[in-house]
Amino acid sequence: MSSPTDDAILAVWRNESVRLLAGLARMTHDLDLAEDLAQDALVAALEQWPREGIPRNPGAWLMSIAKRRAIDGFRRDEVLRRKVALLGHELEEGEMPDLAAAVDHIEDDVLRLMFLSCHPALAPDSRTVLTLRLVGGLTTAEIARAYFAKESAVGQRISRAKRTLAEAGASFELPVGAERASRMREVMQTIYLVFNEGYTATAGPSWTRPELCLEGMRLARMLAALAPGDPEAQALQGLLEIQGSRLVARADASGKPVLLEDQDRTRWDQLLLRRGLAAVERATALATSGIPGGSYLVQAMIAACHGRARRAEETDWAEIARLYDLLASGAPGAVIEVNRAVAHGRAFGPEAGLAILAALPDGALAGSHLPSGVRGDLLHRAGRHLEAAAAFAEAASLTTNADERSLLESRATACRNHAVPSDASVSTTSGSGD
Amino acid sequence: MRYMMFVKMDPNAGPPPAALMEAVETEIQQQYADGILLDADGLGPAVEIRLNAGEVTHVDGPFAEAKEVAGGFSLFEVRSEEEALELGRRMVQLHVDLWPGQDVTVEMRPLFGPPAPAE
Predict the structure, then answer these.
(1) What distance in Å separates the CA atoms of residue A304 and residue A320, rounded to the nearest whole number?
(2) Which of A340, A373, B102, B113 is the most buried (most CB within 10 A)?
């Protein structure tokens, strides 16, 4: 076989890095050290593999190099040795673990790493960046590109996050009981944030950033595989895959957003949709067998309602309204109320939706374009065009996304002109099923 | 980017050794856990509907002249061509290790994906 290029070696590395890092983190209880050791192994691979070819089991090869470096380092560095007293025991076991036979163990390691990257001591933004780096295997440069951020800023955020974890004495053990459940929610929320940042970009010129959506879906699949009995983990995978199936239909040729009801549904990615619906089925089956589902399951069921409708007119809005009522009773919040208003407006007439919006407490979602955008849509449907135009104009002045602004402005103009009939709903960035 | 993998070999090779089947199963489980395997299935014998010099014929497989047939496919979502080729390399390596003497061809085909929206 021809000698591998650096790109090929980096691709192998990326496939293996999460398991390598997860194992090293368990052994060293030190994320920085684990990352250094893993990087050392990559450097060794870049030196040796072009000459010798990629080894049969690259994961085991990289792990053995990293362990050897660790043992060398510990022999040289007494301070380090004392600092991480636990390490000696595992490293001196000598025998390389059979990676293929130790899959359960490795899965636990990866889950541990996910819990650590999404630790409650970290701010949500730091959780997403650290998760993409440690669990996603992305380089700092790739993360910076995805977030339109400076590489140095991302690097600093990662270092700070690792320092915060060390200072907080973050445990490398798997949480149990009630703590496990709450930590799972943090992991899921982080994955959702990664996906959602790509789905409706809050910064930068484009409406979506598919690469972040792809990473979010991949992380959700990993979590669903690690927690096969958890309905929420299955539901999150389903939710993201169903939403992901619409990615290519969400923008027109000029990159402008196309809203759910206007999308050409033949362009939805049928493979992702089918996978997503199957994941929702799994989640529902788990939930009916006694393991309670939560808000991701309800959101996924809403997304599935949209996904099953071959034409927008076939959407079961009464069912979606019922699901939003369920969501609102479990996790009340202004964003959910706005989405509930959309659903009730569709299912039972615009006045029903407007009534829900009117009940929002003063100042709820201040600064967000969401309530005024939805109000505009409902007013438009109720034939109150001038009021609708004012609401759309207000929404346009509040959004930070350029594409969304121009969409809202054009709806305001259309309402002012009374002339252009529109059946589009405003976009909602969470929970509306799109 | 999506890639479809076909593992092709001599149709008369006989059943693969149990150790290979097991190793492939482990590999598939790993791809599943990594979140990159979207779909996989086995493929039955082909029926070809051929248009040749204006004449349409149906021909049932297996075809005597076939040197290689695909027994199944896997569909992956990967981040680079190199990642896809590494998946192919691993599959070949499993055959090197666990089915000595048996040739195999692993084909990795990029999917074009959905067409861009019309202007």
Answers:
(1) 10
(2) A373
Mean pLDDT in runs of 10 for chain A (434 residues)?
81 90 88 90 94 90 90 68 52 43 64 94 95 92 88 94 92 87 94 90 70 95 95 97 93 82 93 97 94 91 96 96 94 90 96 95 85 94 94 92 86 81 46 42
The closest of A374, A307, A367, A327 to A346, measured between CA atoms, is A374
| Residue A236 covered by a domain | no
| Structural domain span for residue A76 | 4-83
pLDDT at B118: 60
Out of A7, A100, A253, name the one closest to residue B117 (CB): A253
Dihedral class, residue A85 (left if φ above 0, else alpha if ψ from -120 to 50, else beta): alpha
Three-state SS for A145? helix
Report the greatest alpha carbon distance in chain B: 54
> With an 8 Å Cβ cutoff, are A7 and B93 in contact?
no
Residues of B in contact with A12 (CB under 8 A): 86
Q: Which residue has the tokens 């005024």?
A: A372
How many separate domains does chain A show?
1
Bridge partners (DSSP) of residue B4 are B75, B109
Q: Select B2-110's CATH number: 3.40.50.720, 3.30.70.1060, 3.30.470.20, 3.30.200.20.
A: 3.30.70.1060
**Facing residue for B82 by CB, picked from A7, A56, A271:** A7
Q: A330, A328, A349, A348: which is closest to A338 by C-alpha?
A: A328
ipTM attached to this prediction: 0.91
> B97: which chain A residues are within 8 Å (Cβ-Cβ)?
56
What is the CB neighbour count within 10 angstroms for residue A390? 18
